[in-house]
Specification:
SDR family NAD(P)-dependent oxidoreductase, Rossmann fold, alpha/beta, 10 strands, single chain, 7-stranded parallel β-sheet, globular, SDR_fam, NAD(P)-bd_dom_sf
């Protein structure tokens, strides 16, 4: 659908009208100043074959065009090809998320290709050493903050001006279970995830009156193909549902209480559980 209006200028976005065709009344497209109905755009920062593709398929099946941002072009091209087989219009925009200039450039390229970004989904996978609480160093925390918090801040600040101009937009920030349940064996990741979750909630409160929906998605289930609610497509459907429920500040996928039990057991016997950060 973006072929109808791919070459519009940056100035055209303020002249677009939203077009609501869904039963929920949520806008599924927008009408450009030339009268063309164009698809909405989802951009996934930290796209991969699991969670990212689950979200991409869920939105793509609802008519969204999809931009994928991650570090490796070859892997992104494979994902774009898989989406094309599902008749989902997608494109790859390679960037190292920790390089904030490169991330902003990738977001700008996505906008140039598809038009204004309607939904930003941020979900990079944790990388680098994961530390226990007493072993956490400044360097270990900085690495996770660069990935999960500072990258998110850079991405959100880039898309907000367009969203403010239109009075519409959605930002979904993904966190792990350690954002909510303190876990000594996920200390540096938990620091970053908790900060991201906190920021998502404050953004939700501040931007909601302006028509912009910001939500945190906390994944306590892991991402497991064929794993019931942990299956990537099941998780993707939850993201799309949250997009539709614009008053929702947080979606929790999985069982936080089960993880609390594991943390309590760790404090007794020191056995490390195998779960999402």
């Amino acid at each position: 659908m973006c072929l109808l209006d791919r070459h519009r200028s940056n100035k055209s976005c303020c002249c677009e009208q939203r077009v609501s065709t869904g039963g929920s009344g949520h806008p599924l497209g927008r009408r450009s100043r030339r009268g063309l109905i164009v698809s909405k755009t989802l951009v996934i920062v930290g796209a991969g074959p699991g969670l990212g593709m689950g979200v991409a398929r869920a939105f793509g099946r609802e008519g969204f065009q999809v931009g994928l941002i991650a570090r490796t072009k070859e892997k992104l091209d494979t994902l774009v090809g898989e989406l094309a087989e599902l008749d989902i219009n997608a494109a790859a925009f390679p960037a190292d998320i920790r390089d904030r200039d490169a991330l902003v450039a990738a977001l700008a390229a996505a906008r140039d290709t598809f038009g204004p970004i309607d939904v930003l989904e941020y979900s990079p996978s944790p990388t680098g050493p994961i530390t226990h609480a007493a072993d956490t160093t400044v360097e270990a925390v900085t690495a996770q903050l660069e990935l999960h918090v500072l990258g998110a801040v850079a991405a959100v600040r880039h898309v907000l001006p367009d969203m403010r101009m239109r009075g519409d937009g959605t930002v979904l920030l993904t966190t792990g279970v350690s954002s909510t349940v303190p876990a000594p064996f996920l200390a540096n990741v938990g620091l970053a995830m908790a900060a991201l979750r906190n920021w998502a909630h404050t953004l939700h409160t501040e931007l909601r009156p302006h028509g912009i929906h910001v939500g945190a998605v906390t994944i306590a289930s892991g991402v497991v193909p064929g794993g019931g609610e942990a299956d990537p497509d099941a998780i993707g459907a939850r993201y799309h549902h949250m997009y539709q429920q614009r008053d929702q500040a947080e979606e929790v996928i999985g069982d936080l209480e089960a993880f609390r039990t594991l943390v309590a057991q760790y404090s007794v016997d020191g056995a490390l559980p195998s779960l999402n950060a």
